[in-house]
Structures are given as C-alpha cells and as structure tokens.
What does this fold into?
Amino acid sequence: MGTLTIMVNEAYKGLLIAWNYKFEMLLNLLMMGGIFVGIGFFMGGGQLNQEQLTFMLIGYVMWLYASTVVSSMSFDLLNEAQSGTLEQIFMSPVPVSLLLIGRSFTTLILATIEILLFAIPVLWGLDINIPIRWQGLVIFIITMTGLFGFGFIIAGATLVFKRVGALAGLVTNALLFLNGSMFPVDQFPNWVAVIAKTMPTTQGIILLRETLLQTQSLVNLWKDGSLIFLSFHSALYFCGGLLFFIWCVHRAKMDGTLGHY
It folds into this structure.
C-alpha cells in the first residue's frame, strides 16, 4: 500500500506541474499537428491521401507514446540530478524503478490527453476513420510494456553518462522512420527490415493496423504467431531493460557518481 501511495503522489505532483504549464501543451499540440500534416503532404506528393493518412496516423500516435516514455524516464532522472535531489530518491523505501514507472504513468496520462486533443481534430478535419476495437487496447498495453523496458535502458544510461539527450533524440527519430510508423516494414530493404523488427514498437504497430483496419481477432493473431512474438519481444525488452537499469545504478554507486552532474 505504501508503494502504491508513493506512486499516486508522484502522479499527482506531475499533473499539478503540467497544469501550471498549459501554454507548453498548446505548443505541443501545434507541433504534433504540423509534423503529421507535413509528413502527409510529403508522402502524398503534395496531396493528402486519406488512405495513407489513416495508415500513418496509427503509427504516428504510437510513436508519440514511444517518444514520451523514452524521454520522460531519462529526463526525470536528469532533472533530479541537476537539482541535487537524485540521491534522496534512492533513499526512498520504494525502488526507483517503481517511481519511474509511476512518473511515466503520469506522463502517459498527460500524453493521452494531448494526443486526443490532437487526434480528434485531425480525424474530423481530414475525414479519417479508424474503428475503435478493444483488441487494439490489448496490443497497445503489451507494446507499452516493452517501451517501458526500452525507457529503462535510456534511464540507466543517464545515470552513468549523465547527458544523453542526443541519444534519446536519436532513438526517438529512429523509431519514427524505422519502425513502420510511416512506411510498411515489408517495403524496407531486407537488412533494414531486420533492424526495424528489433525495435520495441514495430510489431505492435503492425498488429494494431491488422486489428483496427483489417479487423483481425486476437485469436487469429495468436494462431499465426504474431501476437506470441509481440508478447515475447515486449517481455524481453522489459526484463532486459530493468536488469540494465539495475546494473547502471550499481555502476553509478560504485563510481560514486550517482548524485553528480
């Protein structure tokens, strides 16, 4: 119960901070819309193709969630280190990994609000129709599990190397263009497709499109092995990322640089 209370308090604190910076949220909405429409014009050769935009929007929304998780987990630790409070967090009875997940849930809530405020006008204004099916939520949750593991990797690197903003930016940009968000993975060169399928969101985006746009059931996806692969892939990322984060914490403590910036 104490762990849950601390996680809820972290979430509440994050919401209060976000509410005080509403102008930043407005700018984020304008940036989201501008990037999506700009990519749509580029991909459509100067025109907005409805079918193509529908395909892109699912991947783009998943990328927004991915960039939120990857950046927030590392930036939280970096901000704590800059303000000199990082060591106090590690003195808490609650594992830091749970605190990061709690803060990330707060970020996801805010990201969901922003994404809805971005997506609803886009769906209405560009006449995009994406069916809402509960099967998509299952795939989304499994995919997000892997993303949290990926976030642990970047957060761990933050503890050891401190300034990893360039790495986080490189990763999020690579996710946008290499995980099938904009282009179907089966149209990539073979070697690029192999790299793309190792990323934490690629399989999730593929299955989301099959579930929402092609009305595939979870039973069928399980039978053909694609859902099994996604589950294994996400579990591997989460467990591997958590172990890497724990190792980085140990490394920073041994080097005496945990609270340094």
Summary: Residues 124 and 152 are 36 Å apart (CA to CA). The two ends are 33 Å apart (CA to CA). The chain has a mean pLDDT of 80. DSSP finds eleven helices and no strands in the chain.
